[in-house]
């Protein structure tokens, strides 16, 4: 390979080349496309730093980064915040290392406390010191069969019974678009409050539905009320469910199980090869729940660069320092949590 140069996409005319490169790479996620730079910038106001590796006039690697800065959670670079995937995509180890080195130089110039790359597989990070890799999260991805009956018979009889109970109770599944956003957000916001987690603005999900072709809302209603929901994003041979929520008050009707089963049926009918149930922390309750649906477990490689003496960040609900805040948040009325949450969560990637 000829010598590699790194350019910041800002101020160049390489946007078309960037998206063409991402579209050509089977290991790139949908989030590497520039539409997500616009979605995340408009929704959260953070500054993007999109680095491209070029050789012989052609792009041979990309690294999309966002700079996040707050007095509460610190100053850092993330690829990519608020979504499941990001990090370096490149033609080979030389381009990977060049992008990693460029990210380190950017971090030093900006004075950030760390870099976080949300990789599926671990890239070549070169000889630069300060990189650490954690494998604490995994994606759970269901290989989709054309015949949903093959999925159904593979499930435990107990799980099938829960789906049937939801159906007997009158649960109704539907697919909708922007017209279902209010119902989606009602369930999602309440679920986040119940978990003790600040919620995104509804505008974030509106922008996704507006800008991402094929994005739609999956909805379960019981007695005419929304009780479980997901946002579905198609990408190549995959449908991803990055945001899933249900109302714990009606959990005895197994509406969440009903949602997951109908999502599998939907994926079978769509002719895709994979249904991505999203990432979970290994061993967490959501991880165990998703294992019931017979997914492939895809360990993720989250790569961190830290300056000398730096410590790995722990911006997670499992961190004991947030325990009191989470307990208090669960007690807030939903409208108050909805009003305060977006101002906090915009700084939690």
SSE order and pairing:
Blueprint: E1 5-8, H1 15-24, H2 34-44, E2 47-55, E3 58-70, E4 74-79, E5 89-90, H3 93-110, E6 114-119, E7 131-134, E8 137-143, H4 148-154, H5 157-168, E9 172-176, H6 181-195, H7 202-211, E10 216-222, E11 225-235, E12 238-246, H8 255-270, E13 274-281, H9 285-291, E14 296-299, E15 301-305, H10 323-330, H11 334-345
Parallel strand pairs: 4-6, 12-13
Antiparallel strand pairs: 1-2, 2-3, 3-4, 3-5, 6-15, 7-15, 8-13, 8-14, 9-10, 10-11, 11-12
Please characterize this protein's 3D structure.
This protein is an alpha+beta fold and 349 residues long. It folds into two domains: 144 residues, Gcn5-related N-acetyltransferase (GNAT) (Aminopeptidase), CATH 3.40.630; 158 residues, Aminopeptidase (3-Layer(aba) Sandwich), CATH 3.40.630.30. The chain has eleven helices and 15 strands. Strands 1, 2, 3, 4, 5, 6, 7 and 15 form an eight-stranded mixed sheet that branches. Helix 2 packs antiparallel against helix 7 and helix 5 packs across helix 8. The longest helix is centred in the first third of the chain and has 18 residues. The radius of gyration is 21 Å and the shape is globular. The two termini are 35 Å apart. The mean pLDDT is 93.
Number of helices: 11
Overall geometry: globular
N-to-C order of helices and strands = EHHEEEEHEEEHHEHHEEEHEHEEHH
How many distinct beta strands? 15
CATH fold type of the largest domain: Aminopeptidase
- The rounded distance between the terminal residues' Cα atoms is 35 Å
